[in-house]
Amino acid sequence: MINIHNVSKSFSEFQAVQSVTLSIAEKEIHGIIGASGAGKSTLLRLMNLLEIPDAGEVVIDGRVLTSLAGRELREARKSIGMIFQHFNLVANKTVYENVSVSLELAKYPKHKRRERVQECLQFVGLANYTDKYPAQLSGGQKQRVAIARALANNPQVLLCDEPTSSLDPNTTAEILGVLRDVNKTFGVTIVIVSHEMEVIKSICNRVTVMAEGQVYETLSIEPQGIRVTDGNPASFVKQLTEDGESYNA
Ligand SMILES: Nc1ncnc2c1ncn2[C@@H]1O[C@H](COP(=O)(O)OP(=O)(O)OP(=O)(O)O)[C@@H](O)[C@H]1O
Fold first, then answer.
1. What is the ipTM of this complex?
2. Is 16 in the pocket of ligand 1 (CB under 6 A)?
3. DSSP symbol at 104
4. What is the position in ligand 1's atom list of the atom closest to the CA of 39?
5. Span 79-112, pLDDT tens digits
6. Is the CB of 11 under 6 A from ligand 1?
7. The domain at 1-76+188-243 falls in which architecture?
8. How many CB atoms lie within 10 A of CB 211?
9. Per the database record, which ranges form the ABC transporter domain (predicted)?
10. What is the pLDDT of residue 243?
């Protein structure tokens, strides 16, 4: 589904991504992890040409994105949704308008827009929030709106840049659940950049470890499932102690 061949990207003299080759299969949930500055976000942004590569080729579902420009590139990008750490919602637009805007930009037929926005908001559990503004929502709700917006044009690929890094553990679990549902229900291929090992281990089938702008290793893993923490203090104690011994002062 996603094929990257020898892709490189520099900022001034600094090589952020160096000759990366990577294949991500259809319907995979693929994690990208590595130290700060390893080039994870840059690699993700190269997949939809938010960053234009200096060299190499990006192929999505058989289409060579790096050979497209203008209208053709805009058309191809409709099949790639993206969500961000800080949600990137438009502050002075309602939840409804935030989702609708991506349909307007994609020239989705006007008479079908309302139904499509409602479908997407229903899917993320926010059908009753259409008239709220982003400032009236929790972080998890904002990320749900961003997911609804990314889904509106029926993408084949969803790119997620640190999607849970601004969220508490419970909300992280909720959002990972939504992403897993997106993958299972619509067969969307998902790529998640995260520095949180727990996040990567919970839902990814394959993981690329990056170091200094290069692929260090790509491996298959068995997703461990999403660990939900309830507010019960006993569950905090259990989690603090179950991975090993507890420490006494
Ligand atoms: N637009 C830019 N202009 C200049 N340098 C950039 C730009 N984007 C990224 N870089 C640099 O490229 C390197 C890789 O950045 P990138 O954000 O891809 O790393 P990362 O692995 O996602 O790190 P983090 O986990 O800290 O977000 C960093 O040294 C960063 O400073």
1. 0.95
2. yes
3. H
4. 18
5. 999 999 999 999 999 999 999 999 999 889 999 9
6. yes
7. 3-Layer(aba) Sandwich (3.40)
8. 13
9. 2-237
10. 63
